Amino acid sequence: MKPICAYCKKLPAEIEEYIEGAEQLETTPDDYVRREEGTFNPANGHFACTECYIAIGMPSSPTGWVAP
Ligand SMILES: [Zn+2]
Question: What residue ranges in the chain does DSSP mark as E strands?
Answer without folding.
Answer: 4-5, 46-47
